Amino acid sequence: MKNGQLKPGYNVQMATENQFILFYTMHQRPTDTRCFIPHLEKLAESSLPMPKTVIADAGYGSEENYLYAIGEEKDPRFEFLIPYGTYIKEKTRKYKNDVKNAKNWTYQEEDDQFICLNGQRVIFKRYQNKKNTSGFEQSYKIYECEDCSGCPLKDLCTKAKGNRQVHWNPIFEEMKAKAKTALECEENAAIYARRKIEVESVFGHIKGNRSFRRFLLRGLEKVHTEFGIVALAHNFLKVAGIRQLLSEQRQKDTKTGGENVSFFSTCFILRTYQTAPSSTRQFR
């Protein structure tokens, strides 16, 4: 920048499994949210199989991305373990006791209305469509409190001079409920917990241990090639590390007479590497 400040010019999206880089794409979009679909579209165009499950952090948890994963007519493209932005926050006591949060109010489905914590009816008024920054159109239901005058909780509930309004996105709320149910499954929770070990360590090795923090080239095509060389180097070093561990294990087993242990250990590690593109992908 002209003021001497350094700002990122490229966003690297990476799919990994067992800490091997399987696929990557380059983007000039600042947020991960808007890179999710282009990344997977390019993966679909490649010769690699599409994943059965995609695991990503909350930066990818948007209505648009959830709907893409579900596919047309609820024919899922893949399963997903992707939290939304407030997933962790919703578990806190402060969030659950927040008087302005409509999720803490009583919803009466038969009348399509909320009852706020002061006992006032918050009734449905109209539908409203909005486009977000990526051009994706979202549909909201607008609710409005019948009478906020004299409410002792108004200062905590809203800054509006008139009655409190609630902008409710039913489709996104449904998607968030689906994501929450998937993440709170004990088996899925254990899988999602691997994400930090899986993909974050890859970035850590590349940026920290191998000191690759800036691209030397400019332009998407050149930068794509440059990172491809980095990804190849990372994968080769992973293979070299595995071979070294196997060699040390063989020497140890030879001394202790545990040849069978060495054989099964070798088969397990090599099979994990050979089948890496087939099932679960970690994204960042």
Question: Please, could you describe this protein's structure?
Answer:
By secondary structure, the protein is α+β, with helices and mostly antiparallel strands. The chain has two domains: 180 residues, no CATH class; 86 residues, no CATH class. It has eight helices and ten strands. Strands 2-1-10-3-4 form a five-stranded mixed β-sheet, with helices on both faces. Helix 2 links the parallel strand 3 and strand 4. Helix 7 runs antiparallel to helix 8. The radius of gyration is 25 Å and the shape is elongated.
Gist of the model:
With 284 residues, the protein is an alpha+beta fold. Helix 7 runs antiparallel to helix 8. About 7% of the residues have low confidence.
Q: Approximately how much beta-strand content do the residues carry? A: 15-25%
**Structural class by SSE content:** alpha+beta
Major pleated sheet: 5 strands, mixed
N to C succession of SSEs: EEHEHEHEEEEHEHHHHE
Low-pLDDT regions:
260-279
Number of strands: 10
Distance linking N and C termini:
26 Å
Overall structural domain count? 2
Mean pLDDT: 86
